[in-house]
Amino acid sequence: MAAPVRAGEPFAAPDRLLDDTTLEASAVVANSAMNRERQLAGVNSYTRELGFNPLDWLLTRTRRSRQATMGWLDLCCGTGRGLRQAADALARDGLDDRVTIVGVDLVDFFDPTPARGQALRLTCASITSWSPDRRFDLITCVHGLHYVGDKLGALTRVAGWLAEDGQFTADLDLDSIRRADGRPVGRLLATALRAAGFTVDTRRHRIGRRGPGPVSLPWTYLGADDRAGPNYTGQPAVHSYYAEAPGAR
């Protein structure tokens, strides 16, 4: 594990960076426990982490819309337990034909209990290479970006997956996005993300977006470091390194 930088010491880049394929085989990424058992509501839940119940949000939107089906995409969904609970509730109320729920996770460790109805689809894939076959009204990623290599690339792709007036919300640690010399990009990144149409809450480590749109950020992905150590959650995480385009400072 990389040694922490003490106050007054210069930042330094790691001695090696991993490409996304190598990173995804890392024990830090493959064994991340942050999302594994999250439920829909309760103590360890989407509702607690996001500040709203995704199913209630979708049902409210369904009642107000003439759209055939609503879509919820959850990236880095872990076992998918909370998604299955949402799908079961939809089937119980006869609404599983009105909402599509898609969960994507790098590790095929999904809850073996089958969901009721037809709402839920779970997919084992990397979010940096997977692409959906539809747009979504709600996209969530609870603590999953901490383990992604090209975080900015993932955000760019997600912006194109939103339906008109769709909502995206995720946890993002800006300190984990670094320049080639090891320094965090920091406020410059927050400013660029806001200019690209995202909302950034640095205190809550939260990023969001309303509606789709093209995103162009002035950084090129170099690779990731899986030895960065714990982030603000207390769990080991991944630092992502980028080269700045000329004039990005």
TrEMBL record:
GO terms, molecular function: methyltransferase activity
Entry keyword Methyltransferase: yes
Pfam annotation, one family: Methyltransf_23
Keyword rRNA-binding (UniProt): no
GO annotation, biological process: methylation
Record keywords: Methyltransferase, Transferase
Entries under InterPro entries matching the protein: SAM-dependent_MTases_sf
Domain of life: Bacteria
Name by which UniProt lists this protein: Methyltransferase domain-containing protein
